[in-house]
LysR family transcriptional regulator (Idiomarina aquatica), 297 residues
Amino acid sequence: MNISHLKMMQAVADTGSLQQAAQRLYKTQSAISMALKKLEQEAGFALFDRSGYRLKLTAHGQQYLRQAEEVLRQHQRLQTLTDSLREGAEPHVTLCYDHTCDASLWLKSISELQRHYPATEIRIEGESQLRSLRRVNQGEVDLAICPWLPLFRQYGDFETIAIAPFELTVVIADTLVNSAGGMPRSRQQLLNLPMLIPQNLDVGISMDAILRLPSQRRIQANDVSTQRELLLAGLGWGVIPKHMVRTYLASGQLHEISIPGFVQQVDLEVHLIRSASRSLGPAATSLWDMAFTAFIA
């Protein structure tokens, strides 16, 4: 048994396919197949059921994989710890935030990070549609901030800290209100107007399925800034983070929609997120610790 064989088993279990596992790991299919045979020879039982179109774990294979994944997590932690001990503070820290969140949430922490780790380069990247979660899970970034729901844990092994409130509101442009002959006061009046919705989120969540609103005239936008511009142009109504439209609500360019029995506001949280299977370097750990200290204070 070796670590690379366990990684191959995990990839096959995730994809159900030797070909897809090979593509993910940049290996040949024969290398993946040989690794599985080697693991099964050492274990003394079948790890996968090969009778169907897709490879599926046997009952023994499921138990084996659970322990294998813990071994892989421990190996990753040991590797990152080794790198940190060998090199000192990491040469760079990559921070990612979802565009729906206020990027200023990083500012105080970044200032402290610069003061304590001046040689560490700080990279800040924005993403749409919760891609920040995928990037944390794949080890592409050290830390991320994004809106959080408990169901996101099924998409990765995450640790999180709540750092700020996150409020969604339903809005419509003043120009669209005027052209429609007034503010919509019923669900049906609202559904007669164009609706702006985000495209399916990168973690596999369909906003269309969640909203379940049968509006026939729709515009899908793949980032929240574009959605805001479409709202301001009067091209439809939609749900958007309140902090992104607060000034336009104050000026009267946008109005919040209030319809009895219709969700007009959603209160969530923004979380700081890291992978539970990877150890952070000293600089990134300091950012996490600052957020944790603020959380329990």
About this structure: The chain has three domains: 3-86, 88-162+269-296, 166-268. The CA atoms of residues 50 and 56 lie 7 Å apart. The chain has a mean pLDDT of 85. The two ends are 46 Å apart (CA to CA).
